[in-house]
UniProtKB/TrEMBL annotation:
<feature type="binding site">
    <location>
        <position position="287"/>
    </location>
    <ligand>
        <name>Mn(2+)</name>
    </ligand>
</feature>
<dbReference type="GO" id="GO:0071669">
    <property type="term" value="P:plant-type cell wall organization or biogenesis"/>
</dbReference>
<dbReference type="GO" id="GO:0016760">
    <property type="term" value="F:cellulose synthase (UDP-forming) activity"/>
</dbReference>
<dbReference type="GO" id="GO:0012505">
    <property type="term" value="C:endomembrane system"/>
</dbReference>
<feature type="transmembrane region" description="Helical">
    <location>
        <begin position="657"/>
        <end position="678"/>
    </location>
</feature>
<feature type="active site">
    <location>
        <position position="129"/>
    </location>
</feature>
<keyword id="KW-0808">Transferase</keyword>
<keyword id="KW-0472">Membrane</keyword>
<feature type="binding site">
    <location>
        <position position="100"/>
    </location>
    <ligand>
        <name>UDP-alpha-D-glucose</name>
    </ligand>
</feature>
<dbReference type="GO" id="GO:0071555">
    <property type="term" value="P:cell wall organization"/>
</dbReference>
<feature type="binding site">
    <location>
        <position position="129"/>
    </location>
    <ligand>
        <name>UDP-alpha-D-glucose</name>
    </ligand>
</feature>
<feature type="transmembrane region" description="Helical">
    <location>
        <begin position="496"/>
        <end position="515"/>
    </location>
</feature>
<keyword id="KW-0328">Glycosyltransferase</keyword>
<feature type="transmembrane region" description="Helical">
    <location>
        <begin position="535"/>
        <end position="554"/>
    </location>
</feature>
<feature type="binding site">
    <location>
        <position position="263"/>
    </location>
    <ligand>
        <name>Mn(2+)</name>
    </ligand>
</feature>
<feature type="binding site">
    <location>
        <position position="99"/>
    </location>
    <ligand>
        <name>UDP-alpha-D-glucose</name>
    </ligand>
</feature>
<dbReference type="InterPro" id="IPR005150">
    <property type="entry name" value="Cellulose_synth"/>
</dbReference>
Amino acid sequence: MARLHSHHIHPRAMLNRIHFFFYSAAIIALLHRHIAAISLAATSSLLFLADLTLAFMWLLSQGFRWRPILRQEFPHLLRQENHQLPALDVFICTADPIKEPPESVVSTALSAMAFDYPADRLSVYVSDDGSSELTLFSFMEAAKFARYWLPFCRENNILERSPEAFFESGDAVGEAGKMKALFEGLREKVKAAVKRGYVALNLVDSSEEKIFLNWKKFTRRDHPSHIQVLCESRKDRDIAGHPLPNLIYMSREKRPSSPHHFKAGALNALLRVSEAMTNAPVLLTLDCDMHANDPRSPQRALCYLLDPDLAPNLAYVQFPQRYRRINADDIYGGELRRIFLIGSRGLDGLHGANYVGTGCFFSRRSLFGPPSAATASNYESKGCSFLRSELVLQEAHDAASCRYEHVNDWGYQIGFRYGSLVEDYYTGYQLHCEGWRSVFCNPDRSAFLGDAPRSLYDSLGQTRRWAVGLYEVAFSGYCPLLYGTRKASLITGLCYMHYALWAVWCFPITIYTLFPQLALFYDKPLFAKVSDPWFFIYAYLFLASYGQDLIEFMEVGGLIRRWWSDQRMWVIRGITSSAFGTLDFIISKIGLLAPGFNLTSKANEEEVNTLYDSGKFFFGTSSPLFISMGTIAIINLTSFIFGILKAVRSIGTMDEMFLQLLLCGFVVTNLVPVYEAMFFRNDAGRMPRSVTNASILLTITFFCVGRMIS
Ligand SMILES: O=c1ccn([C@@H]2O[C@H](COP(=O)(O)OP(=O)(O)O[C@H]3O[C@H](CO)[C@@H](O)[C@H](O)[C@H]3O)[C@@H](O)[C@H]2O)c(=O)[nH]1
Ligand SMILES: [Mn+2]
């Protein structure tokens, strides 16, 4: 058998290692200087703390650079060699018809149904945590549309098989025009229903009517399980007479007394329901807003999953999260290249890429125990009984009930893991600790494309939730530093710890954006003079780390201006979402409030979209997050202006204050959009006045306190 894939170590790995030694020497020198000059002065000990944290985080992150791997697959060989393709179950999660518009969710499902894959071996399962009749209705419509859409894609060899994305790009004429009209019809119907808030019974036929009448008795937090087989490949045909893949709607049982564990709970219910129905050995998880952009991605993943050398230990093949409709500058750093490309590639050279929740092909086996314990025979696909048969449906409903969650090890020993809001990170980590491996697959044509948040508040809300979820792992019995380093490997554990402490950046960033600025205002020098040799250590540390970051970012296809946004968002997150995420976590730990999964909005709001497309930040709401950002912005601006004025008057002081002035200027440059939104904009996305006023008040307070201390 020819090799289905190849890989090599990144050519820069050696340079990275050399750089590691020089850079660590500089860090040690700096820390030594701190210790030698240690004083009880608050500012200098804070700066020491900041540098210590930065150094620690830097150390944890070096594993990503130790042995990055680049891979290539040869999926065409699968066909040449007549490989039998295994059955594939696709899981799509949605949770709210308002934040996650059903017309987009069905597009995602259609893109997966249209995979270039034998229909009798492909099933698409949709979990609806919103338990919404609107979503079910949309999927009923989607099942009808699929009969036209699938043959259209197949016959015209279309690559972009999400109807939403397909019709967005390019004009539709001829047959495509007809398809577009059909899809628009579906969309209008769905949108009208969502606007109305319920499914009008005249929209559905008599057999469907019963379902919706029944539905009205439930609430979204208290209802029995509901499963609806919308397409069944053994029975249903598209308009060209080909079998359709299975399409199954599931709303798992929810009871107030039974914790539902958010997305991890939904995925586990899907895991059980699919076991009762099709039990495919290969699974694909997708977020509702992440459609397939290449119909042959399953074959690409199978290049690894079918490799007899890898298969016994291979848990999953992860594709990167990539996004469409990102604006030119990617103002919110939504691409997250550092996590989804650079980080994954780095981990791939160790135990394997981390799981990022979507675009990931699993071997079902891996979710049921360590590689040594699994017996392959339990994971053979079912193909005999009809999905709509009484028996199968009964079993499936049962599998979607809360009952399982109480008695079994679901979420702890098997399935997607509970206990963290970032169930993806946590599950991948646990699998690696169990001895499973994984692979990062990053083809040139994006396999999946999703939507990134389009308002600042959404973007920060998302990372705030991640921060809490990551802390939950850091401070659990499975802390990667203690447990991961032992169970997986030293470097893998350190990398996972780096992510677990992702929000810890808030400490050094807040210190560096606050105290040197106050000190500048009150003429207190903190750093080395320009004429001092130590100045060069500072310069080296700063330039080398930013330089390395830039090189890595560009190398994974980034643009300079997007890199600038990316590093800006690092600063902004540090003073907002990471800081508030840290607080959220502390509050949840002392038992005041249980952490919740706030969905990221995927809704298309006109104003938000227009501002996003024109590259302007959308603030709009008065959130405490923005007050902390506004305060730091104004403090930096004030100190910077003050510093410049002083520098102009007496050049002499420049020598010892230069680094502080530079730092201040750097922060000010980063926060230009904040000043604009506070003082120069009048649109809906500007900073609310109340936030600006509160920030000014807080700034004054800080300067007063600073005066008392200095
Ligand atoms: O109770 C819930 C909450 C969420 N979801 C689904 O989970 C997915 C991710 O939710 P989203 O609001 O889009 O979160 P993001 O922060 O954008 O998602 C990232 O982070 C999540 C973990 O916090 C991962 O699950 C995702 O895969 C990853 O893309 C969506 O399809 C939701 O419908 C559920 O099914 N049930
Ligand atoms: Mn999302």
